[in-house]
Amino acid sequence: MANISTNIKIDIDYIGAACNCCPHSLDWQNGPRLIYAVTNSVALCSDIAPFSIRKTFSGHQARVNCVKWIRQEQRNSISDFYYFLSASVDKTICLWKGIDDDVRLIYRICTSLVGHQNSVTTLIGYQQSSNDNVYVASGSADSTVKIWCIANTLATCIHTLDLQNGFAITLEF
Question: Would you indicate the residue range of the signal peptide (predicted)?
Answer without folding.
Answer: none
